[in-house]
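Exercise 7. Given the encoded structure of a 55-residue chain, write a plausible sequence.
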């Protein structure tokens, strides 16, 4: 929906790419996103705050 309004999706694509790489590094085999996985992913995103993930 945001893309239709003129916003770019590059930021979201980059965030999902980082999450994918984290899952690969952790050798996750189940398709379930747990708090542990998100916590590991957030360790690499030191400049993010709760609010910046939703903008």
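Solution.
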């Amino acid at each position: 929906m945001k893309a239709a309004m003129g916003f770019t999706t590059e930021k979201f694509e980059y965030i999902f790419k980082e999450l994918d790489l984290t899952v690969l590094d952790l050798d996750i085999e189940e398709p379930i996103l747990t708090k542990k996985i998100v916590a590991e992913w957030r360790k690499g995103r030191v400049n993010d705050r709760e609010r910046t993930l939703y903008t």
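Remark. Residues 10-25 form the longest helix (16 residues). Students should compare their own answers with the one above.
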